[in-house]
Amino acid sequence: MIMIRRVSRFVEGTLPGLLLLAIVLMVSVDVAMRYIFNTPIRATSELAMIAVAWVVMLGCARAARKFQHITISVLSDAVRGRWREIHSLIVIVLTIAIMGYVVWTGIPYIMQTAGRFFPLTELPRWIMTASIPIGFLLMIVHQLQDAAQIVRDLRHGTSSYRFRRQRELALILDPTTADTTAVKVAER
């Protein structure tokens, strides 16, 4: 489990950060080459486009893990007790269904772009289009983990999912809050 968390943190946190750094450096060097030496780097736009696609999709997966996607909580705030967990579970199941559809339709899309190449770098286009189903697949994994936690909470009468979600949101709102890997189980 610890290894999975480390890989997840790297793939969804460090890797997009490195790609973003590469984008900034590539575009900066390209601008300098274009305006100072009058010789732009031809492949910068294609490489930046590929990197941006991966940054966005891996960032979406990280946002799913950290509960940072936009939510409308009017209905979930209105229900209390076990019904709140049941509501969360229904929302997660519907979300998984929608994301599963995106993954399902994304795979043929990758196949369609498999024989096409970027004109300047001659890289296959599937390198960019693969980011969509992979990003959504990572989000599905996080949603399945959340659903499993809610089912455990419902069976044991605990609220660890709600506690973990509130803790992650507190870390966003107050960055001075200490981040620990241990999750406490909050009783109702």
Short description:
With 188 residues, the chain is mainly α. It has one domain.
Supply the key terms.
188 residues; mainly alpha; elongated; disordered C terminus
Could you please describe the fold and organization of this structure?
- The protein is mainly alpha-helical.
- It has one domain.
- It is 73% helix and 0% strand.
- The chain has helices at residues 2-36, 44-65, 74-78, 82-113, 126-129, 131-156, 160-173.
- Helix 1 (2-36) packs antiparallel against helix 2 (44-65) and helix 4 (82-113) packs antiparallel against helix 6 (131-156).
- The chain is elongated, with a radius of gyration of 21 Å.
- The model is unreliable at 181-188 (pLDDT under 50).
Mean pLDDT: 85
End-to-end separation: 27 Å
What are the secondary-structure elements, in order, as H or E? HHHHHHH
Poorly predicted ranges: 181-188
Number of helices: 7
Computed over alpha carbons, the radius of gyration is: 21 Å
Percent strand: under 5%
**What profile does the largest beta sheet have?**
none
Overall outline: elongated
Count of DSSP E strands? 0
Helix content range of the residues, please? over 70%
Number of domains: 1
Structural class label: mainly alpha
